[in-house]
């Protein structure tokens, strides 16, 4: 049961969050509001869509952990993430706990063995807000070994906050500026496959374009090598070259650049939308 002092503190913090709707301060302010209620680590907000790579919207992750928490996650593991799978499968709840969602079998999964066990995370909760056009915004909060898993009381508190958290996230994401930058426009879904195969073609070689398409579709280095019949080291060289030619430094930067070209898919007419975006 939430006590009056906790409720009052949340109301004050929620008011501050509402004041930041539509601004870059929204997610950091929401992270801090949740921190005043429960100890948590690595808060991060993601935009998911069934037909596009995930997009990191905001995070408060120490620099030393960004490569693992974001870049490596985007190299393929996200497709096996139970939170991602739930998000694109018409979720009904506004909050999920990873251990409960996987019925306690997370350590037996390939996702855990190949990726999650390296994150040094002992518990994770996701707030979920469904948007228009099949997009979903998730806010994930974690616990590290020194903090221990969320207690039942702590999870019950987060559960009680789930409805207002989902509501303010949706309100923020439907603001005009956010929608224009991040959400799919009606009618372009069928053109996304063309964008996957044509994006960057004006700037990279033929083989690099094949590697780039697999990167955009979420395939890791090993899977890409197998599909293309080349070595893992060759794929890595191609990836490095692609980063240089497209002037990006990470998988997150690459995905963000790809998303930014979405409004130009129709104008490109099957050609490289990046060329139009770059002017």
TrEMBL record:
Transmembrane region(s): none
SMART domains cross-referenced by the UniProt entry: HTH_LUXR (SM00421)
A single GO molecular function term of this UniProt record: DNA binding
PROSITE patterns: HTH_LUXR_2
Gene3D superfamilies on file: Winged helix-like DNA-binding domain superfamily/Winged helix DNA-binding domain
UniProt entry keywords in alphabetical sequence: DNA-binding, Transcription, Transcription regulation
Swiss-Prot/TrEMBL GO biological process terms: regulation of DNA-templated transcription
Start and end residues of each HTH luxR-type domain: 197-262
DNA-binding is among the record's keywords: yes
UniProt-listed InterPro entries: Sig_transdc_resp-reg_C-effctor (IPR016032), Tscrpt_reg_LuxR_C (IPR000792), WH-like_DNA-bd_sf (IPR036388)
Protein name, as recorded: Transcriptional regulator, LuxR family
Lineage: Bacteria, Pseudomonadati, Pseudomonadota, Gammaproteobacteria, Cellvibrionales
């Amino acid at each position: 049961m939430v006590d009056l002092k906790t409720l009052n503190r949340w109301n004050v913090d929620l008011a501050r969050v509402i004041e930041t709707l539509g601004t870059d301060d929204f997610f950091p302010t929401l992270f801090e509001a949740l921190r005043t209620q429960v100890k948590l680590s690595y808060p991060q907000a993601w935009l998911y869509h069934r037909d596009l790579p995930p997009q990191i919207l905001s995070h408060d992750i120490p620099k030393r952990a960004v490569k693992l928490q974001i870049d490596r996650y985007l190299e393929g593991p996200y497709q096996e993430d139970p939170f991602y799978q739930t998000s694109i499968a018409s979720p009904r709840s506004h909050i999920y706990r990873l251990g409960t969602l996987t019925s306690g079998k997370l350590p037996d999964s390939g996702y855990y063995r190949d990726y999650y066990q390296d994150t040094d995370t002992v518990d994770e909760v996701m707030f979920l807000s469904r948007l228009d056009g099949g997009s979903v915004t998730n806010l994930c909060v974690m616990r590290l070994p020194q903090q221990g898993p969320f207690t039942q009381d702590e999870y019950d508190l987060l559960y009680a906050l789930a409805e207002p958290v989902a509501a303010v996230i949706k309100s923020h994401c439907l603001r005009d500026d956010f929608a224009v930058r991040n959400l799919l426009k009606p009618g372009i879904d069928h053109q996304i496959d063309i964008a996957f195969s044509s994006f960057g073609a004006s700037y990279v070689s033929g083989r690099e374009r094949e590697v780039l398409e697999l990167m955009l579709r979420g395939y890791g280095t090993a899977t890409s090598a197998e599909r293309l019949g080349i070595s893992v080291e060759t794929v890595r060289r191609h990836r490095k070259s692609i980063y240089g030619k497209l002037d990006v430094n990470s998988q997150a930067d690459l995905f963000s650049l790809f998303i930014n070209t979405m409004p130009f898919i129709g104008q490109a007419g099957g050609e490289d939308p990046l060329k139009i975006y770059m002017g």
